[in-house]
Amino acid sequence: MARKPINYWEKRSTELMKRLERNTEHTINSLIQAYEQATKNINKEINKIFNKYAVDGKLTKKEALELLNTKKSKEFYDNLLKEINSIDDVDIKRKLLAKYNAPAYSYRISRYQALQENIDVELKKLADIEQQITKIQYVDTIKEGYYHNIYDIQKGTGLGFSFAQIDNRTINLMLNGNWVDGGNFSKRIWNNSEKLGNYLRIQLTADTMSGKSIQKISKELSEYMNVGLYNATRLVRTEVCHFANESEMLSYEELDIKRYRFVATLDQITCEECTRLDNKVFNVKDRKPRKELCSYSSTEIDVLQ
Q1: Whole-number Å distance between alpha carbons of 231 and 214
Q2: Model confidence over 42-86: pLDDT tens digits?
Q3: Is the four-CA dihedral 290, 295, 297, 298 of positive or negative sign?
Q4: CB of 246 within 8 A of CB of 142?
């Protein structure tokens, strides 16, 4: 059975995490919409190529090879560059433009290559949107964790004291910190996008060559994209937990708090690591970012004065 909060410090941590959880759900809903739109866009390209030529939604292996080897027009190339230019991430845009502006590429590509490139660019656009959506959430989480924790400590101790505002430089340092797998949140988004793109390109080719119907290919594509969405939402929850904890520790440092006690709610979703750390006391100066975090709704921090 979950242990109920028994004092002020437990209650204020629980309330903060519930607020962050509600805000995170809004972010996840935005991600769901972005993934659904990307899935529709890719399916639209698949149907554009195959539906005109398929009989009863199917192509023989020979027909598929002949169709996919047909050269695409300059119109496709121009549209591809337009989609690339819509990406906000400067580094990703530069790399894509360098690739597709190469003389050897031009617009002399096959339908097969065109479909592969459409998938690649569509997923890059999706990752770009994902990065924008989640960054807003993480900045809000950092500010909420920092300021609300200071407010709670003032209220809980009955003391009024001055403190420094959290500036953009500090926030950016936190956002760009490599706290797990040697990368920050942005790098993990692009890595997930690359993995999903590689899988989709390989699987789509296999599905086409196996003679699967367009309807079945579209259905499987949606399933693969849902796996990508699952990974994206899991990343968001983990990152929100991380930034909430980091901003809370930053507020301790600002208030010159020396020690804190880790309090786990000990319910059925609490991970083994949180259970092991329950009720242990740590020095703020010795704290290290945890490499894995369970659901942010199942852990709290208790200030020791």
Answers
A1: 26
A2: 888 777 766 655 555 555 556 555 555 566 656 666 777 788 888
A3: negative
A4: yes
